[in-house]
Design brief:
heterodimer; A: 627 residues; alpha+beta; B: 157 residues; mainly alpha; 5 helices; 75% helix; elongated
Chain lengths: 627, 157
């Protein structure tokens, strides 16, 4: 605008120079106008507000013209089923960002990840993120095309991750997750079990997440250009993810005669899948499509066309290769290598299928996911059907134990030791900053635990007991062969060996149990603090986090009394750890009851030496758990 | 001597039948109002106690059918009262037409709310139970009755 003005003024002054000069001999006026124009241009440049980039094509298209019809169509005839599904976290797995869907604090504060500072804020109805970094001149500047509009979110239960358009307009993950329980932003690499110091990566929604975090997703992802033209029928996991595509069903039932003929026949509807009426193999495969450690046989085909497995079929093995401990690729750092305990039990929460199919209840029985879980009549937290959080789950088949439970468990009938899950499905899987129940249903075995490092149920509750103690009782009560154990396994509580010397998963899982109410009831709740304190400087951030979360439930270590932050610098964490240990030593001098108790647990070795010795011999095998 | 001083003549047979028919609809209408307003109160009570059998999302079809049974029953009760009044106001209405309209209205008054009620008691998922087939029959009778009544009231003396 100012340029046009300048040209116009100049041209005008040239054409009519003589006339103007004769009539208005004031060249200063022209200069003044030019100066004003320059000032206006400069001001416009300085105060120009860039428009928020609109994420054209970043959010996958919603396409319901194919075999998928969407949950809204199902709702018309199945309002109850729709309402119960609507309450689940499956529905909100992927959402378009709006005030109703965002859990994170977009409060304008800075959060640093490596050398980039992120700032989440609101701009009217928009949710924005800025990313700034020091340039070579030492000035802090926004990265190219930042601030960007946050367009999608993943998760709504434990964590929420956010997606912004990358330079090609494709959804790419912001490397900070919002931890909903803690109500704080945590860098992605510190939110998962990941070896310290490895380069972070940013997930690509269109190629990976779409297959399980949407319904009817077709990636159309071109690896060469890293650009996708993805479409979904529903964001999140909706009706057709479990019941199969609904187009045929809808078209068939639009005819009232067909509907009433079906109502009166009482036969299964051939146009839709009811997982409860499938064979056990087909039923568990419906969940296995996503709740498993697996990957497509043909990655490029999957990136283009999606995964063609359909509920009700038993051909999932034709589409996905499931991680199998006995047939792992001979590659040391293969993705699946650390997914298992050394007895082949899957130890990643969310990947239950790999464990489930190794359970005798499945191989020799009829156990399916729906034996305990329900999408429509359950608590959204674990999707357990009514009553299935009690022994009723197992008594469905093992009815003979109903009236002689105590004779079988050797624990008081109303105690956590008589809760079937606690012994046969201990919390030995890790995911989402917590320990989760193993879905390989089996019985405690001290020898197996000693040989494979998979924590056994007894010692995850009786934190102060050794594997030898466990073996003795398992022999006495159930006739198990006495375990062959090392001297340490005979003298030091198994939980301490896992906690201080285990690999990252053993440490995380055991630290979680140090805050588990059932374990604290069984083993006392006054001696765990110095051992948990040792993990406050663990080289895995998640282990620090879980240990501190357990620690802060003890008196004297609440956030107000002990303001530790696992995200703080290593030096600060070490200082906090030292302060906590000093406090423990001061509160429990030699000769005190707890000091004596600790010496019993460490086989009379001084606490500091014990902690140092075990930590020095810790299993630091790099472990990356794909979540 | 004026007419008013002479004793009233005994009603003719035809007039008597009209009166009888009007009384029938009057009686039927009031009782129908009583029954279906009672149903309305029952439905309100179920709202009051948040009865899942009636209010749960899965029972949407039942809720719709029972509500329709209540509204149709009540309105048809009012139609019966109006029909009763109409009978006394249209002396030129032929016997056969009047009888057909009357029976059709009575049939509709029974079949329509009953169809909704039976369809809603134990519905199929997303569909009313088979009792709903009473509804179209009742709707047909209602249409016949209303048409005959409209024609009769349109005739000049």
């Amino acid at each position: 605008m100012s340029l046009i003005l300048e040209i116009a003024v100049t041209r005008s002054s040239t054409d009519n120079r003589q006339t103007i000069q004769s009539q208005f001999p004031r060249p200063g006026l022209v200069r003044l106008i030019v100066l004003a124009a320059v000032l206006c241009s400069t001001a416009g440049f300085l105060f120009y507000k860039r428009e928020t980039p609109v994420p054209v094509n970043t959010i996958p298209r919603v396409d319901r013209t194919g075999e998928y019809v969407s949950a809204n169509t199902c709702k018309k005839c199945h309002p109850g089923a729709h309402a119960s599904w609507h309450d689940t976290f499956h529905r909100t797995m992927t959402q378009v960002v709006s005030a109703e869907t965002v859990a994170g604090d977009f409060d304008g504060r800075d959060y640093k990840v490596d050398d980039i500072t992120y700032n989440f804020y609101r701009d009217g109805d928009l949710f924005m993120v800025d990313a700034k970094k020091k340039n070579t001149m030492g000035k802090v500047r926004s990265l190219p095309h930042f601030p960007r509009r946050v367009v999608m979110s993943t998760g709504s239960h434990h964590y929420q991750a956010y997606w912004v358009p990358n330079l090609k307009g494709q959804p790419i993950e912001i490397p900070l997750y919002y931890n909903i329980a803690e109500q704080r932003w945590i860098p992605k690499q510190k939110s998962v079990i990941e070896p310290p110091g490895i380069a972070g990566n940013s997930a690509h929604w269109n190629s990976h997440c779409i297959n399980c975090h949407s319904t009817g997703g077709i990636p159309r992802f071109d690896e060469a250009t890293m650009v996708a033209d993805s479409s979904v029928a529903d964001f999140g996991i909706s009706c057709e993810a479990c019941h199969g595509p609904g187009r045929e069903h809808v078209e068939f039932h639009q005819n009232a005669v067909n509907r009433y003929r079906h109502h009166l026949s009482g036969e299964p509807d051939p146009t839709i899948v009811n997982p409860a009426r499938c064979t056990k193999e087909a039923s568990v495969m419906i969940c296995a499509r996503c709740h498993s450690s697996s990957q497509p046989h043909d990655r490029n085909k999957a990136w283009m066309e999606g995964i063609h497995f359909r509920p009700g079929n038993e051909d999932i093995d034709d589409h996905l290769a499931f991680a199998d401990y006995d047939n792992l690729p001979p590659v040391e750092d293969h993705t699946f290598a650390k997914v298992f305990w050394q007895d082949g039990t899957c130890r990643v929460g969310g990947d239950e299928y790999n464990a489930h199919i190794k359970s005798a209840c499945y191989t020799h029985g009829e156990l399916t996911c729906l034996s305990c879980h329900s999408m429509h009549s359950s608590d959204p937290n674990d999707q357990l059907a009514a009553g299935m959080d009690t022994n009723e789950a197992c008594l469905q088949c093992h009815e003979s134990f109903r009236n002689n439970l105590q004779a079988h468990t050797h624990h008081a009938a109303n105690s956590s030791g008589s809760h079937c899950y606690n012994c046969h499905m201990p919390n030995t899987s890790y995911a989402l900053s917590t320990a989760m129940r193993s879905h390989r249903i089996d019985s405690p075995d001290a020898q197996r635990s000693a040989d494979t490092g998979r924590p056994d149920a007894c010692n995850l509750c009786h934190l102060d007991q050794t594997l030898a103690w466990t073996s003795q009782y398992l022999t006495q009560w159930y006739g198990q062969k006495p375990a062959t154990l090392s001297e340490e396994q005979q003298t030091i509580p198994a939980s301490l060996l896992w906690l201080l010397r285990g690999d990252a998963i053993q440490r995380a899982v055991t630290a979680w149990h140090f805050g588990w109410p059932a374990a604290l009831t069984a083993s006392g709740n006054d001696w765990q603090m110095p051992f948990l304190t040792q993990l406050l400087t663990d080289n895995y951030d998640q282990v620090r986090f879980i240990a501190h979360r357990a620690l802060r439930s003890f008196p004297g270590y609440t956030p107000e009394q002990f303001p530790y932050d696992f995200l703080a610098a290593d030096e600060k964490c070490a200082a906090d750890q030292a302060a906590a240990l000093r406090k423990w030593a001061k509160d429990n001098p030699p000769g005190s009851k707890l000091h004596t108790r600790i010496l019993e647990l460490t086989a009379q070795e001084p606490l500091a030496l014990f902690l140092h010795r075990l930590t020095e011999s810790r299993d630091d095998t790099p472990i990356l758990i794909p979540e | 001597m004026s007419d008013s001083q002479s004793p009233s003549p005994a009603p003719s047979n035809a007039h008597g039948r009209v009166i009888d028919r009007a009384k029938l609809h009057l009686c039927f209408g009031w009782w129908q109002l009583f029954v279906f307003l009672s149903l309305g109160i029952a439905l309100e009570v179920m709202h009051g106690f948040k009865a899942g059998w009636y209010l749960d999302a899965d029972n949407e079809t039942r809720r719709l059918m029972l509500t329709l049974a209540h509204t149709h029953g009540t309105l048809l009760g009012l139609v019966n009262l109006a029909f009763s009044w109409t009978l006394t106001r249209v002396p030129q209405w032929g016997e056969s037409g009047r009888r057909l309209a009357s029976w059709s209205l009575l049939g509709a008054s029974v079949l329509m709310p009953l169809g909704f009620f039976a369809g809603g008691l134990f519905p199929y998922p997303g569909d009313p139970a088979l009792g709903i087939i009473l509804l179209p029959a009742g709707a047909f009778f209602l249409l016949v009755s209303i048409f005959l009544t409209a024609v009769a009231t349109s005739k000049k003396k």
